[in-house]
Specification:
CATH superfamily: Metallo-dependent phosphatases
Number of strands: 17
Shape: globular
Number of helices: 10
Structural class: alpha/beta
Low-confidence stretches: 1-32
CATH class: Alpha Beta
Radius of gyration: 23 Å
């Protein structure tokens, strides 16, 4: 080997040791940081009153999740809190009103939940007083929340959980009514999925975290397929920088889609929630693997809601779940990234 050109040598020295070679021993071995993987467990709708509240009252806060506690274990555990936690406020005039005492949050805390979406159509069932009580109760319990706040800026605020050095950010939005529940510039409420501004909120949030999860409450109840609002908002979120889209509100499992290489779960159905429709009985716990490159894979753990005591799904329910999740062929065509647990 002849002498190095002085100009080339200067470029190599300025580039730093990572790009230089030891010319006597050959190419240098690249120094790399070990890949970090963080596990996010995500579930669907949670209602802490009704049958679930009765179980907690009679048997204690750990009772409802006894059979599925191990399936929830992860660095981050997320769900949609579909009720205010308050013992006051004025009941709104609507068909269904939910309310649970703040002490019932212990059921979630003891199971490892650390972040909840509150952008939904029930969190304001007992008015602004009940809503503000809910924010205070979540903070007192040490549970982070997204999608709601004392004003619109607070409701759209990015929440970041750092796990194993990875900064995982969460945002929550809803398209559901009543409109009076939507946060305003100086009014408490939930983050409305305004297409004209949500993209900017998501793009700004993406610059403050390593991985971004967008939660969305919308769609048609009991529908097997997402509607156009769900699809449009999911695609907007991904185009604006989201790495994972988690949906809820239909109360049933809807298919997973991969858009621009990023997963969209349109609806995770019910979880700790009792509904009379048999279509809501089968659900899933999504165990998501997160890295600096986003979502490396998702494993769906089959579950049956079992009237407020979720249990591992039986064989027939497992097949029903696979059919619902794989309606767009994602599990079949990308089994290395997305699969149903045995």
């Amino acid at each position: 080997m002849g002498p190095l050109n002085p100009s080339l040598l200067a470029v190599l020295l300025l580039a730093g040791p990572a790009l230089c070679q030891d010319i006597s021993t050959g190419p240098a071995v690249a120094q790399s940081t070990p890949a970090v993987t963080v596990t996010l467990t995500a579930v669907g709708d949670i209602r802490l009153d009704g049958p679930v509240g009765a179980i907690i009252s009679q048997e204690g806060p750990e009772a409802p999740l006894t059979a599925t506690r191990e399936r929830l274990q992860a660095d981050i555990v997320f769900g949609n809190l579909e009720c205010p936690v308050t013992q006051s406020g004025t009941k709104l005039s609507k068909k269904w009103n939910f309310r649970a005492p703040p002490r019932n949050l212990a059921a979630l805390k003891s199971a490892g939940f650390n972040i909840l979406n509150i952008a939904n159509n029930h969190v304001m069932d007992y008015g602004r007083k009940g809503f503000m009580d809910t924010l205070a109760a979540l903070e007192e319990a040490g549970l982070q929340y997204i999608g709601g706040g004392k004003d619109r800026a607070d409701a759209e605020q990015l929440r970041v959980i750092e796990a194993r050095g990875l900064r995982v950010g969460f945002l929550g939005f809803t398209s559901t009514f009543p409109e009076s529940a939507w946060a305003g510039a100086h009014r408490p409420g939930v983050a409305y999925s305004d297409f004209s501004r949500a993209g900017g909120v998501i793009r700004d949030a993406r610059s403050h975290c390593d991985v971004l999860v967008v939660s969305f409450h919308g769609g048609t109840e009991l529908a097997e397929e997402p509607n156009e609002i769900q699809r449009g908002f999911a695609h907007l979120a991904i185009n604006s920088g989201a790495d994972l889209f988690l949906g809820h509100h239909p109360h049933v499992i809807q298919p997973i889609e991969v858009y621009q290489g990023k997963p969209i779960i349109y609806s995770l159905g019910n979880f700790l929630f009792s509904s009379p429709s048999a279509a809501t009985f089968v659900t899933a716990v999504a165990q998501v693997k997160l890295t600096t490159n986003g979502v490396s894979g998702i494993e769906f753990l089959p579950v049956e809601t079992n009237w407020g005591r979720p249990i591992p799904a039986r064989a027939a329910a497992r097949q029903e779940l696979k059919k619902s999740l794989d309606r767009y062929g994602v599990l079949s065509t990308l089994p290395e990234r997305f699969k149903l647990a045995e």
